[in-house]
Amino acid sequence: MFEDVYFLLDGTTIPGYSGHSRKGKECQEDYNFILEEVEQFEYFDNFGIPNPGIEVFVKEELFEGRLIVFSTNEEQQMGTVPVIHNELKRCLESGLIYKGKVVHSSSSPLVRVAVILHKE
Fold first, then answer.
1. Is this structure's pTM higher than 0.85?
2. 53 touches 10 (CB < 8 A)
């Protein structure tokens, strides 16, 4: 699957997480990244930092021009997709569906929520 390991600021690692190394304009089978703007969304307000394993999905809804990742069960906004993955909007518009899960979360020194999305 993925060979890289991503190191968070708190020293923990996410095996199989390649961060921003998957650049390109093609629709990928898998996307993995750290959500942005997490503290600005309703999931954080209602539940705090999501635990690993929480199921997520992305849809065409935008926040300041950026795609939003939602929690599957609560259907609440969780964070935005980094702009480096803007091609994902075109992928969704073409009818592709991406679902996945939170693979890591931490609150110190900054709120970090890492997700992996898989093409359905």
1. no
2. no
